[in-house]
């Protein structure tokens, strides 16, 4: 059965590694519209970081940012929101810093950090088209945070920090990897699977009629919520194992390949 909705991850999936849309992707999005299949974006980025993609992709659908912590309708109005419990937020910041990661907090519509020279700031800024602000202390902002992030060029350090933090926080927050160099912390209900269900509901589509495409472990809840899961060729073996279809990587027109395979299901 052909899906009526495709929910897509962004970085590592619908954009290339240079963070731009391939021409093939823009054309494939048009083919989706022609086939009557809706397209919505669900990302670890803040919702504002998805705005530049809406026009070239022809989007008129809700989107979700911060791994599902903030869902907005097509007009940019918030329809679902989950902030991290303050105690869990404080614990996450302390542990990530202790583990040697650079820590960022997204709260109150701001991107807050302590070290303006930290690795990956320029890369993230390119992705989300959002300025940052250096603060001496995160404490005043931990009661309204949508996401806490840790970053490091040491991927093994990130993996170890994520595992330890997940165990420490238990059910207070969810810890996921949106990139090899990132650790994302969000509210327990802030995951891409829950966000996908909210978006499907807003569009009047049964989740069973939804396809999901992604490349990282934070996309797995989205895979579980959808009737069809598609993994990018640059995904890990674990992510590929959770998908029914695997396509080429995000620098090799994999997203366009996925669209054509989904359309062919009709």
From TrEMBL:
Transmembrane segments: none annotated. Keywords: Hydrolase. Signal peptide: none annotated. Gene3D superfamilies: 3.30.1240.10, HAD superfamily/HAD-like. GO terms for molecular function: magnesium ion binding; phosphatase activity. InterPro entries: Cof, HAD-like_sf, HAD-SF_hydro_IIB, HAD_sf. It comes from the Bacteria. GO terms for cellular component: cytosol. This is Cof-type HAD-IIB family hydrolase.
């Amino acid at each position: 059965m052909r899906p009526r909705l495709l929910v897509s991850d962004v970085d590592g999936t619908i954009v290339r590694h240079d963070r731009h849309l391939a021409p093939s992707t823009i054309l494939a999005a048009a083919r989706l519209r022609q086939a009557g299949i809706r397209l919505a974006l669900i990302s670890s980025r803040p919702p504002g970081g998805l705005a530049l993609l809406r026009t070239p992709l022809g989007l008129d659908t809700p989107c979700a940012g911060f791994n599902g912590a903030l869902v907005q309708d097509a007009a940019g109005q918030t329809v679902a929101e989950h902030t991290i419990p303050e105690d869990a937020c404080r614990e996450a910041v302390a542990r990530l810093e202790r583990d040697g990661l650079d820590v960022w907090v997204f709260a109150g519509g701001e991107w807050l950090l302590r070290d303006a020279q930290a690795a990956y700031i320029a890369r993230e800024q390119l992705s989300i088209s959002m300025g940052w602000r250096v603060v001496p202390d995160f404490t005043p902002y931990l009661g309204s945070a949508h996401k806490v992030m840790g970053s490091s060029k040491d991927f093994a350090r990130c993996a170890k920090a994520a595992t330890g933090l997940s165990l420490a926080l238990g059910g207070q927050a969810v810890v996921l990897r949106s990139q090899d160099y990132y650790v994302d912390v969000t509210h327990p209900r802030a995951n891409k699977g829950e966000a996908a269900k909210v978006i499907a509901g807003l569009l009047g589509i049964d989740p069973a009629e939804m396809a999901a495409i992604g490349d990282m472990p934070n996309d797995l809840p989205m895979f579980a919520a959808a009737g069809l899961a598609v993994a990018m060729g640059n995904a890990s073996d674990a992510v590929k194992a959770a998908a029914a279809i695997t396509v080429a990587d995000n620098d090799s027109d994999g997203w366009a390949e996925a669209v054509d395979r989904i359309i062919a299901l009709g």
